[in-house]
Write a structure and sequence with these properties.
Blueprint lengths: L3 E3 L6 H7 L4 H7 L13 E3 H15 L4 H6 L9 H8 L3 H11 L7 E8 L2 E8 L8 H19 L6 E3 L9 H7 L3 E2 L5 E6 H4 L8 H15 L6 H12 L7 H7 L4 H10 L4 H16 L7 H7 L5 H12 L3 H17 L1
Parallel strand pairs: 5-6
Antiparallel strand pairs: 1-2, 3-4, 4-7, 5-7
Helix pairs in contact: 5-6, 5-10, 11-14, 15-16
Amino acid sequence: MTNLIRSACLTSYPEIARSVGLDPMRMIRDAGIDRRCLDSPDVKVSAAALRRLLENSAREAKVEDFGLRLAETRTLSVLGPIGLLVREEATVRDAVTSLMRYIPLHNESLHLRLEEQDGTAVMITEIRVPKPVPLRQGTELTVGVFYRVVRSLIGPHWKPLVCFSHAAPRRRETYRRLFGDKIEFGHEFNGIVCATRDLDRAIPTADPALARYVRQHLDSLLARPNVGTSDKVRELVSLQLGTGCCTVELVAGQLNLNRRMLHRRLAEEDQTFSGIVEAVRTEVVSRALPNPERKLSTLADMAGFSSLSAFSRWFRDRFDTTPTAWRRDTQAHQSSRRET
């Protein structure tokens, strides 16, 4: 199954790419990522496509630390609700534990773990891939973001040891600027080493009530049954239907599949792409149409139609009435219920 990652991972990519002489839109397109993913942090993209983008960018720009330059721009907000929970936990240890538990909701290919022994804590990052591929840029981005997250909780004085399994770069300016001088390359793991007591520090701005609320929300997402291809397609269609360009080719590319492979996998789950689009479209319309303040032209856009007339034809074919008549009848029914 193709692993997905939130498009928040593309935060600041265009700016960093331009700063090293790249055309960001061309690089994104060549990696198989739709440029509209830049407009929303919650669209899911292929983790493999992101890895290609980072490695291709570093190679073409001849910049070994491209992933690390991206990491320098990241804050807790890039993690969405996970970042909110991390900020509101009582201690740094609680924050790191929550980050490890919920990170698959942000990046399905990323695994984090914490090992402690004799007063030393080792926070390890691992990008899981089905076959050997270049991972230097993705690894440095991941470790860099992890470092910035924990440092934001402990304070700027925190100076842990940062470890990378790959060879040292020719130039280390960016590494020293971000991590200081305590960096080791050619290590047996990628991650961060610090004193166990660092994790016991209280987070003074913690809000236990808010943390509990966000944790319940994230737990409900984790509790979902194993997500199949049709579930991922449905999520992507829901996010992109209103763009007017929600095609099978686009969705297949975001899942790192071609059109034929996507159709085959959906067929294995007794689903079709057109059927999923139709179901999502019906849900969108059924939810939004009763609101008399919403223009039908706006609703047509939300449902992915190129024009109001196309939407009206589809609606009549599906519901055997017009959108206006359906809205009027629904409002009349609701009024009669209130009167009784």
